[in-house]
Amino acid sequence: MTRKLFASALTALALIVLFASPSSAAPSRHDIVGVKTLGGGVREYTVLNPTGSATPTQLRTWLNQRGYRTDQVTAAVGCSPHVGTANALCGAKWSYGPFNDPQVYFLDHSGDTWPVTDARIDWYQAPGIDAYYRWYTAGCPGGGRHCVNVYSASYGQTGWYAQTTWQTSGGYFVDGSMQIQLNNSTTPNTYAARRSVACHEMGHALGLDHNTGTTSCIKTYLFQAPAFPQHPTSNDFSVLNALYPKAGT
Ligand SMILES: [Zn+2]
């Protein structure tokens, strides 16, 4: 083996080690989440969907530079109900309003390459919560219905495919605070990749944390094999069903 080849092999090995266990300091599903305390009991969270091109430390630094703390979030995400490999976000969920199931409208501002409509169909199958789709110009219907704005843009080589941000207060998500940002710059421009990333972020927006298995679109590292799963799993649906039990039961 030439010296150059040996060096390449070492580099490859280092990358494998780096990305195979990128979160030795914390459970993987807790990685790359930031929190800000906004006062009045309101907290803002944001979670990054890593591309693997930046280390977890680099991503945490990116969050720190935007005012998010990353040192106290392990207790704030990945809460019960847990079903199989699926988990709920901690600390907040959607309120019912006057409905039997929380009503969540995805308001789509994203470009044509992002199959938000198709990804929404998967989440509409989930029991316990109803996920609807609207082009953003139709606006948020109000009346106790919740809206999640979904944007896409070329956010640059950020090291994340997408970012979902929300605020919590009194155990519920704050209306109007939940937003998804889909990154054209980093996400492969294929239907499979973009559907998977959209599916992932929409799952967060309904109240799910990462699925620690390999086949859900809301697994932590979408680039890991099998890359870019297209759908949630039945475990993800079961967590939603437990998180949002039928009102009055
Ligand atoms: Zn995520």
Automatic annotation (TrEMBL):
It comes from the Bacteria. Residues 1-25 form the signal peptide. Residues 186-244 form the Peptidase M10 metallopeptidase domain. Keywords: Hydrolase, Metal-binding, Protease, Signal, Zinc. This is Peptidase M10 metallopeptidase domain-containing protein. It comes from Microlunatus ginsengisoli.
